[in-house]
Amino acid sequence: MKFEQGEHQGFYDLTSDRWFKITLSNKAGFVLDARDAVEGVAGNFEERLATPLEYLERLRLANEKFADGIRFLGVIDASDGWRLVISQPNVQGGPPSKKDVLQFFRWHKFRAVNEKTYYRAMDNLLVGDAHTGNLKKLPNGSIVPFDVLLSQPDGSLRRSVEAPASLSFD
């Protein structure tokens, strides 16, 4: 099975039960960034193209914080530009409900910043793009995030997520 979605092209390998993903030419996915951050106003950000180093940091955080099992396989120097190659375990399950997503993040001590962004102050972990399409509900009821945008923000982005939420998404 092949796909092209957002930041990757890829395919599923039945033998290894892994997804192999290749970033689009000269692109390294996305990260969250502050947009005209206003002191004391939470959730004021946007997605922007990531640098290759930010992409690799995002993968490292996924493995460390959510035991994702992502493997960085290398860089392809293609005729249309460089591409980063990873593999990721297949996760059996279906989409969780919005309530499941909120409960998962609450259980793991995150605070909702907006409807698809969560922040945990104790380890300065920001999780963006956390919607029902980027988490799976396993047959046993557990929730597993994948393809979320992870970072440990600083500067205006950190101030934006540390600010008390002006609206409650809980």
> Mind describing the biggest β-sheet?
5 strands, antiparallel
Shape: globular
- Count of helices? 3
Structure summary, number of beta strands:
13
Strand content: 35-45%
Q: Portion of residues in helices?
A: 10-25%
- Return Rg in Å: 16 Å
Question: How many discrete domains?
Answer: 1
Distance between the termini: 37 Å
**Uncertain segments:** none
How are strands sequenced across the largest beta sheet? 1-2-3-7-6
Mean pLDDT: 88
Order of helices and strands: EEEEEHEEHEEEEEEH
Helix-strand category: alpha+beta
Structure write-up:
The protein is of the alpha+beta class. It has one domain. Helices cover 19% and strands 38% of the residues. It has helices at 52-66, 98-107, 155-162; strands at 2-5, 8-13, 18-23, 30-34, 45-49, 71-78, 81-89, 111-114, 117-120, 125-128, 135-137, 143-145, 149-151. The strands form 4 sheets. The protein has a 5-stranded antiparallel sheet, with helices on one face. Strands 8-9-10-13 form a 4-stranded antiparallel sheet. A hairpin with a 4-residue loop joins strand 2 (8-13) and strand 3 (18-23).
